[in-house]
Amino acid sequence: MVSISLKNKISTEYPLSSELKSLTQKYAQFPYLIMLKTDIQRRGIYYTHEALKKADPTVHQLAGTHIFGTRDGILTHRPEAFMLRDGTSVLTTPTPLEQNPYIIDLRNDKLTLVDGQNELEEIEYWTKPDFYDKTTKSGIPMNLIASARPQRIYIMPNRYCFFWSDKQNCLFCDIVNNLQKQKKELSMPTRLKPEDVEETISEALKQKGRFTAICLTSGSDFNGVNAFDRETDYYIEILKAVGKNFKTKKFPSQLIATAFNQDQLGRLYEQTGILSYTPDIEVLNERLFNWLCPGKAHWVGYKEWKKRLKEAVPIFGRGYVNTCIVAGIELAQPYGFKSEDEALKNVLEEAEDLAADGVNTVFTVWSPRPGSIIGNQKNASLEYYIRLASGLHALRKKYKLRLDHDDYRRCGNHPDSDLARIL
After folding, report:
1. Which DSSP string do the residues of 200-233 spell out, in sequence order?
2. Cα–Cα distance between 123 and 347 in angstroms, integer?
3. In this predicted structure, which of 13-22, 139-148, 348-357 has the lowest mean pLDDT?
4. Phi, psi of 305 (to 5 degrees)
5. What is the sign, positive or negative, of the torsion defined by CA atoms of 87, 90, 91, 95?
6. How far apart are CA 196 and CA 194, in angstroms?
7. pLDDT at position 65, please?
């Protein structure tokens, strides 16, 4: 039974989604559990009190180091993610009940995904890595230095984006607003020291077989003699610290950063062990890029961003240069596309232009957050995300592009890259 505190709040207006049922029939070749994952990310998750009591901090991975906030605006140690029965990873965004999220509840002593009054799937919380219980020599808990994805160590060296200082922040982003909460409530360091990163990675790698790659991401920093020189220098400093834990010059790694110029990118590649590069363009349309990403538009520009993506391919190789879009923001109003068909056509045409030159496009499901400028809007339909995932997957097949560092094994946050499991 649902807890008393929740029972009267769950709307009976939402039985087992007829939309989901019809789409599993319409798109029979699209794996059901990946479709379900996509819809969970689209609608969000609400954890009942009973489900939260099953989250054991000595065993499970609890949220704490995310750059971005949640849909309910609450910063607390809730489960960061869970797995479906086939091993599909679902990173979660806790969401208010009135927004009709899926529910994680305890049914017959089992953690269960619930939609309306219908029990859909038994789920399992992620187990935390060993290094989460350690502290650096400087006294910082290592789980504030790095977090974990399925098989990836995730490092956020700088939790500030300088676009906010010029009031040019991306309209869907809440990084700085979330940072203020993290600093106050979790004593989260804003900018990591290389020695703390080196020590944390060393400890993480002691857990044999747990990790296969390392990922770095931060907010943009346009300072320097040339724009983004300081960001480049800082990443080089951090990556060198990471690299001290490896015997080879290169190590399995991904950098999610700004679209750097050729000199900056050359220095990054030659001076560090980085193997994969992901400058996120966020939205594949110049007009909407200028509206939704004013800082990126001002300091780099849409055409130049795409140009830099393509110019990175000879350095890293085909399939090792990626970009991510926040899928659904292309439909944000008042300036977004008026129909999903029009939006999908535009996104896939732009993604193919990149794929033809060896650049992968992946997507995350837009999660409107209250700390962002357009946080009061709704994302796209489930069918839109299914069609987009299928289209991007087809492009990777057509252009024979690998996707090693943003795949389901290492990242687990992109429904389209989950489809690589069926290749």
Report:
1. HHHHHTTSTTS-SEEEEE------SSSTTHHHHH
2. 33
3. 13-22
4. -60, -45
5. negative
6. 5
7. 63
- How much of the chain is helix, strand and coil, in % rounded to 5? 40, 15, 45
Judge contact between 33 and 88, C-beta under 8 A: yes
Gap between the Cα atoms of 129 and 298, Å rounded:
40
Task: Determine contact, residues 306/281, Cβ cutoff 8 Å.
Answer: yes
Looking up tokens 């001002």 gives 298
**H runs (alpha helix) in 221-335:** 229-243, 262-271, 286-292, 294-299, 302-316
The maximal CA–CA distance of the chain, rounded, in angstroms, is 62
* Token pair of 215 as six digits: 């990922």
Residues 6+ apart with CB under 8 A from 192: 145, 155, 156, 157, 158, 238
| Better-predicted residue by pLDDT, 74 or 288 | 288
Instruction: Pull the structure tokens for residue 150.
Output: 């399925």
Q: What is the C-alpha to C-alpha distance for residues 188 and 147, in angstroms, rounded to an integer?
A: 13
What is the distance between the alpha carbons of residues 35 and 382, in angstroms, rounded to a whole number? Answer: 8
Which residues have CB under 8 Å from 254's CB, separation 6+? 213, 214, 215, 216, 274, 275, 276, 277, 278, 322, 405, 406, 410
Q: pLDDT-derived band of residue 78, with 50, 70 and 90 as boundaries?
A: confident
Answer for the pair 213, 254: CB distance below 8 angstroms, yes or no.
yes
Measured CA to CA in angstroms, residue 394 lies from 31, 389, 390, 391, 415 at distances of 15, 9, 6, 5, 13
C-alpha of 93 from chain center: 11
Q: Which domains does the chain have, with CATH numbers?
A: 4-20+34-125 (no CATH), 130-422 (3.20.20.70)
Report the alpha-carbon distance of residue 55 to residue 52 in Å, rounded: 5
3-state secondary structure of 69: coil
Cα–Cα distance, 211 to 251 (Å, whole number): 12
Q: pLDDT tens across 289-323, in order? A: 999 999 999 999 999 999 999 999 999 999 999 99
Q: Which residue has the tokens 């980085």?
A: 274
Name the pTM for this structure: 0.93
Work out the angle at residue 179's Cα, subtended by the Cα atoms of residues 176 and 184, and round it to the nearest 5 degrees: 140
**Residue 85 in tokens:** 């029965």
